[in-house]
Amino acid sequence: MLIHVKTDTVQDKPDNTKLWLFLFAVYIIWGSTYLGMKIATEVVPPFLLSAFRFLAAGTILGLISRGSERQWPTKQQVGSAAFVGLMLIGIGNSCTALAVHYMPSGLVALIVAAIPVWFVGFDWAFFSKQRPTIMTFTGILVGLVGLFLLFNPFGADHQSRPYPLWPIAVLAGGCACWALGSLSVSKLSMPAPMTSAALQMLTGSVFCFIVSSVMEPGAWNTLAHLSTRTISAYLYLVFIGSLVGFTSYSWLTRNAPPGLLSTYAYVNPVVALFLGWAIGHENLTSQALMACGIVIGGVVLMTLGKRKG
């Protein structure tokens, strides 16, 4: 998942080498964070992991922003960033961490890829009031069919499925909060981009610490069992996933054509599925691969429909 920021006007002629380098970084980095969360939550519970991850990343980014942006936010801007951080980081991203703890990381990435459904619905109902195009509706239906084929609870093999389905409901709620928080940005007075992202991360971190203290008894005791594998995954999530990934995406929002930038939504799950299979030893049946292709096709249609609308 990404940190949503206000975008500036796209430059007329961005550096093509830099453009594709940053786009490739977003493709790979955000696609790989699902496996990173999967590995890290093998030892540390999801909410405590998210709390430490975004505490570190938010602190580092806040220090960087002080030296580069030099703009102190108003109380209203701090409140706005805190709300967005609660929705995106505190609920949205931590629900993803919870889901990958119980489910294959590649399949979680695929569900998250369908997040445009929430964007379309909330935007139509509460924000632009613009009716989605026929292509967008078609994409939504195709994506939902693909997800049903992937997780069909009535299928003959549902009893032998090695993971529970209840995290899907949690993940759906997290995706809904992510979409609502992202859409709210345009209506709120926000700080400068890096300061805003730092405040969002720190707010989300505080929320995750609170939730962990209530829902994850004994979570702090797991820190005594950290392995090199766990620490490596955590450091990757902080420095590569949160900091490098955000920096790349932030530059792209100001310099890349929106249609090109939106392609990360259907490249990330492909990367996550491949890494989950190659490194995480996650199995994918032929039916699952077919369903994945249908879901990604639906996301493509939703993206194209929104662009034309």
TrEMBL record:
UniProt domain EamA: residue ranges: 21-151, 166-303
Membrane topology listed for this record: Multi-pass membrane protein
Any GO CC annotation of this UniProt entry: membrane
The protein's name in its UniProt record: EamA domain-containing protein
Subcellular location(s) per record: Membrane
Transmembrane regions: 20-37, 43-66, 78-100, 106-127, 134-151, 163-185, 197-214, 234-252, 259-279, 285-304
Organism name: Chitinophaga pinensis (strain ATCC 43595 / DSM 2588 / LMG 13176 / NBRC 15968 / NCIMB 11800 / UQM 2034)
Family named by the database record: Belongs to the EamA transporter family.
Pfam families, sorted: EamA
Keywords: Membrane, Transmembrane, Transmembrane helix
InterPro entries listed in its UniProt record: AA-Vitamin_Transporters, EamA_dom, EmrE-like
Protein's UniProt keywords contain Membrane: yes
